[in-house]
Specification:
The protein is an all-alpha fold and 96 residues long. Helix content is 74%, strand content 0%. The chain has a domain of 66 residues. The longest helix has 32 residues.
């Protein structure tokens, strides 16, 4: 493996690990603090009493989403073939 491919592998590994950690912590540690299963009124009272819990959950979920987008974009970037020659921008301009 080359140095570049090692660097890419590390970045993708760290991104995948962070995506897993944020997803896991959101559903296992943060969500049970404000969610009362089967009782929406108690859930709303908990959220009203401490809105920062829900905000934290949303923020962690946003980091999870960014990790998924980054991993998908990197995969697409690495698997799409690169064109050998850049095509001209205006191919039909100047033709009669």
């Amino acid at each position: 493996m080359t140095t570049t491919s090692n660097k890419i592998s590390r970045v993708l590994g760290i991104a995948f690990l962070l995506q897993f950690i944020t997803s896991f912590s959101s559903s296992v540690f943060i969500k049970p603090l404000w969610l009362v299963p089967g009782n929406i009124s108690e859930t709303m009272l908990k959220i009203a009493g401490n809105p920062d819990l829900l905000r934290t959950n949303i923020l962690v979920d946003m980091f999870t989403t960014l990790g998924v987008i980054f991993l998908g974009a990197e995969r697409i970037k690495r698997t799409l073939p690169t064109p050998a020659i850049n095509p001209p921008i205006n191919t039909f301009v100047g033709r009669q």
